[in-house]
Amino acid sequence: MTRCSFHPFYTLAFIFSLCFFTKAQYVSLNPKVDTLKVGVAGNAPFIINEPGNPLPQGISAKIWGEIADDLNWNYRYKDYQSVSQALEALKTGEVDMVVGPVTINSQRLDSFKFSQPYYQSSLSIAYKQGEFSIWNLVKLLFSFKLLIAIGIFLVILTIVGTLLWLAEKKASPDQFPSEPAKGIGTGMWLAIVTMSTTGYGDKAPITLMGRIIAGTWMIVSIISATSMVAGIASVLTFSNFQSVDIKNIEELNGKRVATISGSPSVDFLKEYKVTVRPVENLNAAMTLLHDKKVDAIVYDRPQLLYYLNNHEEEDLQISKAEYYKQGYGFVFPKESPLTYDVNRTLLKLAEDNKTAEIAEEYLGKEQ
Which regions span the lipid bilayer (predicted)? Predict the structure, then answer.
């Protein structure tokens, strides 16, 4: 019986050949000679397919075009319906890289290699610019919160008026009649002129208990009247102007907010206990906002800026507050050697302010 054995040199050679052939397609790939297969996926403003234009436009496509031109690389595009489909094609080797608004996260880093971020995205709030009007003020006068405040105030006046009447009805029947309705009404009148510091002098307590009640009410009124009046004024002013400037997510508490179904903004809004109205796309959300069926829209900031830049005639605003920040990058197989050249060129474009200019072309210049 003959025993077969492998020389250590042949074993090492075999292992090296396996590694070589596994990575051969990436090592031998030369974009200046070969043609890169570039998967494209995403929507505006990052990937825009214009009628009659065979090449995709948008922030991602233009930045990639600048990189390829700078490196003198050859490439051809292959379109995909979604980013997930393009990434699956990258896994199977159908394409050499993916261009589009692909979020860089730790989960994807297990399967792919990313370039450095070429754009920092986030969630923001879009709202319709409001304006002061008499009608808005009239509506606020009948608002539920204001009616509750007035009701509580009347209850307090009734209690004070009743105490004054009980203390004064026997000693001063000419001022405080024995009939409850008239007597309590007189007590409430005295409480009102005392609180407002008007002091007509037509009514005044003459008993010790009446004066104690009136004096106590004066002190309480001085302390609370300013705060109460300021509170009512702030409710009227803030409620009328709160649609003019929404600064942060906390101001959406109790309001109706539209967002896109399945987007990260859905879970984000639920964390803040905001009433969510999910819709299919941004246009549907804008329709709800214009019809005043929702108070605001929360979605990806670049998409909101792109819409605003293309609909300047619409009276829309976007809050300065940004949430859930995430970077977009170009995607490569883990073994790809192309990322070094791409990252170096991206840095050069950033230093020359080229990436910012491309983004501004589609999103407009933020004030």
Answer: 6-22, 146-167, 183-200, 212-238
Q: Report pLDDT for 131.
A: 55
Cβ atoms within 10 Å, residue 205: 22
**Alpha-carbon distance values, 168 to 5, 188, 198 (Å):** 120, 13, 21
- Parallel/antiparallel/unpaired status of strands 323-333 and 97-103: antiparallel
Examine residue 320 and state whether it is found in any structural domain, yes or no.
yes
Q: What is the pLDDT of residues 243-296, one digit of tens each?
A: 456 778 888 887 899 999 988 889 889 888 888 999 999 999 999 999 989 989
* Residue pLDDT, tens place only, 142-161: 667 777 877 888 888 899 88
Domain boundary among 214, 241, 268: 241
Q: Is 105 exposed, middle or buried (0-12, 13-18, 19+ CB in 10 A)?
A: exposed
CATH number of 335's domain: 3.40.190.10
> In Å, how far are 47, 76, 308, 350 from 118, measured between CA atoms?
14, 21, 22, 8
Looking at residue 3, its pLDDT comes to 47
Rounded to 5 degrees, what are φ and ψ at 197? 60, 20
Q: Residue 1 falls within a domain, yes or no? A: no
CATH of the domain at 198: 1.10.287.70
The dihedral through the CA atoms of 94, 99, 101, 104 has a sign that is positive
Query: Number of structural domains, the chain?
Result: 3
Q: 191 CB contacts (<8 Å, ≥6 apart)? A: 157, 160, 161, 164, 217
Distance of CA 163 to the CA centre of its chain: 52
Rounded to whole angstroms, how far apart are CA atoms 362 and 355?
Answer: 11
Token duo for residue 135: 């009608």
Domain that holds residue 268: 127-134+245-324
In a domain, residue 294? The reply is yes
Q: Which of the listed residues 212, 241, 270 is the one where a domain comes to its end?
A: 241
Amino acid (one-letter) located at 204: A
Residues 6 or more apart in contact with residue 80 via CB below 8 angstroms: 39, 40, 41, 86, 89
